[in-house]
Design brief:
alpha/beta; 2 domains; 6-stranded mixed sheet; 3-stranded antiparallel sheet
């Protein structure tokens, strides 16, 4: 396994003329070792989501190179099917790989017990809280069986209290089911709480301008002095007031 390697990547979205071109990324470098959690922070529009799609092979770079173990994207919205049960939504990752429906449900069911969803297997998405919907989406992502998870602001739509709860939940889930993770977030504290390293991106065209090692024991809390100190370093790299 190689993890993720992004080397000197440029990504341009072509307009009708060169004047209309949008350069999303230029000179972007990033690496994630197998089993490492790399959190990426940056301003809106700096190319963070584009970076994840490149890692997942959903886009191709215009220059530079991207190499990664097979990756799966968890987008900002949970994208659960409203007519399907929570269990069937999670099992969809197996169904698209050709696993029969009954067997897919049987394989998905134990994950509900492990991740605090037991008893909600038959619930429709509208009957679940925002945090529970994200858990179902995360189980679906894990069941895709890919060694790399590309997480695109998975908690952005949640309220502050639920977001904090889900951050702790995700840290525990990844401790149980280690993966190579590239996590995109606007929340600098979230990056420090969850990541082994934090990569700070410049405004568009995006590139890495700073990298912080987060050599802190888990679990971590937002009010920990060491977390606050790293948060201030990241904010300074972003050019924001700490």
């Amino acid at each position: 396994m190689d993890g993720v390697h992004v080397d000197g990547v440029e990504r341009i979205f072509r307009g009708r003329s060169r004047r209309d071109d949008v350069v999303a990324l230029r000179g972007m470098d990033l690496c994630a070792a197998p089993g490492e959690i790399v959190a990426v922070v940056g301003a809106s529009g700096c190319g963070k989501s584009t970076l994840l799609e490149l890692i997942c092979g959903l886009q191709a770079p215009d220059a530079g190179s991207v190499s990664a173990d097979p990756a799966v994207l968890l987008p900002q919205r949970d994208l659960l099917l409203p007519w399907a049960s929570a269990l069937d939504n999670a099992a969809l990752a197996l169904r698209v790989r050709g696993v029969p429906a009954a067997r897919a449900r049987d394989e998905a069911r134990p994950w509900f017990e492990r991740f605090g969803l037991a008893g909600f297997e038959r619930a429709r998405p509208a009957e679940l809280s925002g945090g529970m919907r994200q858990r179902v989406a995360f189980v679906r992502t894990l069941l895709a069986g890919k060694p790399v998870l590309a997480l695109d602001e998975p908690f952005a739509a949640l309220d502050a209290l639920t977001r904090q709860e889900m951050q702790g939940w995700l840290a525990r889930a990844l401790a149980e089911e280690p993966r190579t993770v590239v996590l995109v977030t606007h929340d600098v504290e979230e990056a420090v709480v969850l990541g082994d390293r934090v990569v700070v991106m410049s405004p568009r065209p995006g590139r890495a301008v700073a990298e912080l090692d987060v050599a802190l024991p888990r679990p971590r809390h937002r009010t920990d002095a060491s977390v606050v100190a790293l948060r201030e370093q990241a904010l300074q790299a972003l050019g924001a007031p700490a």
